[in-house]
Amino acid sequence: MDQFAINIIVLGKSGVGKSSFCNYLFDQAGLFETGSGKPVTSWEKNFQSHTFEHQGHLLNVFDSVGLEADNYERWLKQFDSFMQQRRARPMEPETWIHGAFYVINASSARLEPVDVNLIKRLGQDARIPLQVILTNADVAGDKVEALQREIHHLCPGVSVTPLCSVSVRRRGGQSTQAFGRDEVLSLYLEQSHAFLSKRLAAMSCLNFKGVLREMRNTVVAKIEQADLSIFRIADLDLDTEIELPDFDEVFSDLKGFDDYLSSFGFVGDWETSDELENAVTRVFDDFQGEMESRFKEIEDGFESDSLLRKVGALYEAAKIILTLKSTMIEWLDEGFGRVHAALDQLFIKYAEDDNFFASHLKGCVLIRPKLFGIF
């Protein structure tokens, strides 16, 4: 099985220590070029990535040009283009952006409107895991707590992690050790697992619906092509007349929720997998029970002492026989429709207010639209 990389973007104004943070976080001394308050990532290298391995996970880290007053419009245009490209294939999770680090220099003790705007765009609009990293936390003193309070006030729910990315020996023999790396990575992987679990579960609902839709169309085509005339009803062998597809083969290309999580290096042990399978199985079992009850009711009618019930049973049986094709298709659509409705409810639960799949949903072709709540 191919291993997918977790895609991370690193953003922030020039001179806040993005490159030093990346070198420290991913233990890659010198790979990310550092400078002294000046832009070191060129526009040609904007949003280019470096790949690392950490605790069994592949990490793709996309570095960015530092934000400055005179490049904001250009930077924002490239950022929006980059994010749009990463949303272009919503059914391919390896192309998504899975999280972001927004870096602020804690010693500056300033949270500017551009910072707040981008933090909100990432956390609230893009709905991806986000950590605000406060660099130079070793020398910032009380400014760190003040910045944390301000960020939590203006951007509720955003995680803020103080960090020092370099060890420094100061006058008098004192030294400052780098800190924060383990806290940042541990929290990020926890956030990433939760994020991927929900979004992959929503995607699995759509994948499942697509496979069921193809299966339904294949079975209906078989029914419509079959010779089910009333004159052959006594000799009719449906198994021979309607050769159904191999359902194992139909579902073989449907990559499971657990498989996707494993591809990103996470153990697929969340309840979501069982919830998806149980929901579909329960609907099919309930529908099968109802169908058996319908036929049992007709059978009981024929065996009844009541003439009225016998006539009613004969009428129901005749109606089924005379309209066998349309009846079979109607029952099929009813069963599949119920499964789709159950998947709709699960999709709403998993996606919540994340509109990431909106463009994909617009292109869905539905069998019977009135049965589907959201598509």
TrEMBL record:
Q: Mind telling me which InterPro entries this protein's record contains?
A: G_SEPTIN_dom (IPR030379), P-loop_NTPase (IPR027417)
- Pfam families xref list: Septin (PF00735)
SUPFAM superfamilies for the chain: P-loop containing nucleoside triphosphate hydrolases (SSF52540)
The superkingdom of the source organism is Bacteria
**Chain ranges of the Septin-type G domain:** 4-128
Name of the protein in its database record: 50S ribosome-binding GTPase
**What species was this sequence derived from?**
Pseudomonas emilianonis
Q: What is the lineage of its organism?
A: Bacteria, Pseudomonadati, Pseudomonadota, Gammaproteobacteria, Pseudomonadales
